[in-house]
């Protein structure tokens, strides 16, 4: 019997925002798959049995830490660590993602249910999708389990609506530049703005828009901002900004 790959969204940071389905799927799976972003940590997919994986690796995996209070039995499951370095070299990334998918496929063909944990929702700028598409192309079973997207959680923190009536919503990856996007009419969500914060702030200041930001939403180190002047130069990778037209 062939196994199945599940891409499970753990939500934005607060364990209480995980869905019941996400918890159930993690409980029922045979093993956990985790993306490892630091290239020096692993260069090839590695399967660690219970107790073999380094504790510091698990601590750096935000999605794992979010799910752990709800599914403590995860500690008894084998963990497949998949290298997912943050780089923009297309050929290098293709090679890495191919190897990751092959490692997952090998387990599925052995009848294993594999649960790939990802922060937020698996369909929004998620590393999971690179593996999902390849497993699909191989004709193997896959399923996406939705999680609450970070921009919905940030809007809730500020007690605002994202869009109303005829307003449009734009979700923008900040690492690729925001200049043109800021001129769009509607609500703008700037994802993962931390690495480009100074540049992003300067561009926002050129416009007249209502500013809302949360750093590390739902996590213990969460910080909420409503004034762009209060945002420090160095912020977390998990910094999300919402801009609404000032009408």
Topology overview:
Layout: E1 4-9, H1 20-28, E2 31-36, E3 46-48, H2 55-60, H3 62-67, E4 79-83, H4 90-108, E5 113-118, H5 128-137, E6 142-145, H6 150-157, E7 169-173, E8 187-191, H7 197-205, E9 209-215, E10 223-225, E11 239-245
Parallel strand pairs: 1-5, 1-6, 2-4, 2-5, 7-8
Antiparallel strand pairs: 3-4, 8-11, 9-10, 9-11
Helix pairs in contact: 4-5
What does this molecule look like?
The chain has 247 residues and is an alpha/beta fold. The protein folds into two domains: 4-145, Cobalt-precorrin-4 Transmethylase, domain 1 (3-Layer(aba) Sandwich), CATH 3.40.1010.10; 150-245, Methyltransferase, Cobalt-precorrin-4 Transmethylase, Domain 2 (2-Layer Sandwich), CATH 3.30.950.10. Helices cover 27% and strands 23% of the residues. It has helices at residues 20-28, 55-60, 62-67, 90-108, 128-137, 150-157, 197-205, and strands at 4-9, 31-36, 46-48, 79-83, 113-118, 142-145, 169-173, 187-191, 209-215, 223-225, 239-245. It has a six-stranded mixed sheet with strand order 3-4-2-5-1-6, with helices on both faces. It has a five-stranded mixed sheet with strand order 7-8-11-9-10, with helices on one face. A hairpin with a 7-residue loop joins strand 9 (209-215) and strand 10 (223-225). Helix 4 crosses helix 5 (128-137). The model has no long low-confidence stretch (mean pLDDT 91).
Key descriptive features of the protein:
247 residues; 7 helices; Methyltransferase, Cobalt-precorrin-4 Transmethylase, Domain 2; Cobalt-precorrin-4 Transmethylase, domain 1; 6-stranded mixed sheet; alpha/beta; 5-stranded mixed sheet; 2 domains; single chain
């Amino acid at each position: 019997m062939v196994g199945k790959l599940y891409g499970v969204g753990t939500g934005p940071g607060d364990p209480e925002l995980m869905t019941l389905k996400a918890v159930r799927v993690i409980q029922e799976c045979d093993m956990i798959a985790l993306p490892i972003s630091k290239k020096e940590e692993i260069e090839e997919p590695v399967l660690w049995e219970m107790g073999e994986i380094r504790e510091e690796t698990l601590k750096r995996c935000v999605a794992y830490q979010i799910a752990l209070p709800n599914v403590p039995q995860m500690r008894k499951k084998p963990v497949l660590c998949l290298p997912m370095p943050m780089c923009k070299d297309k050929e290098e990334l293709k090679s890495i993602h191919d190897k990751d998918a092959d490692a997952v496929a090998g387990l599925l063909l052995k009848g294993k249910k594999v649960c790939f944990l990802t922060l937020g929702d698996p369909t929004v700028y998620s590393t999971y999708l690179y593996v999902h598409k390849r497993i699909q192309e191989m004709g193997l079973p896959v399923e996406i389990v939705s999680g609450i997207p970070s921009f919905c959680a940030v809007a809730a923190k500020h007690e605002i609506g994202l869009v109303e009536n005829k307003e449009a919503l734009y979700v923008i990856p900040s690492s690729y530049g925001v200049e043109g996007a800021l001129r769009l009419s509607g609500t703008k969500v700037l994802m993962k703005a931390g690495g480009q914060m100074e540049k992003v702030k300067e561009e926002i200041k050129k416009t007249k828009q209502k500013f809302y930001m949360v750093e590390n939403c739902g996590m213990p180190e969460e910080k909420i901002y409503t004034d762009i002047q209060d945002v420090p130069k160095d912020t977390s990778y998990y910094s999300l900004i919402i801009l609404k037209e000032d009408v």
